Description:
By secondary structure, this protein is of the alpha+beta class. It is built from 2 helices and 4 strands. It has a 4-stranded mixed sheet.
Amino acid sequence: MARALSGVEGLKVAVMGCVVNGPGESKHADIGISLPGTGEDPRAPVYVDGKLATTLRGDTIARDFARMLDEYVERRFAPKP
């Protein structure tokens, strides 16, 4: 059974398909990624809370972003002891 995470329903996630315009849109989300287009280098900048956090590279971009998203949600919305 999944536990409730208070406030998570307001989470803004941006998944953009353009490394040119995507960063601007991603900066306005809580967490966002700008994916490369077909034939472009496999690199994807990730923004967290409006700031560039990292640039993911290679064939594991989707998996790495999903992990980052899970960690962000846990850090921001998990109940504090």
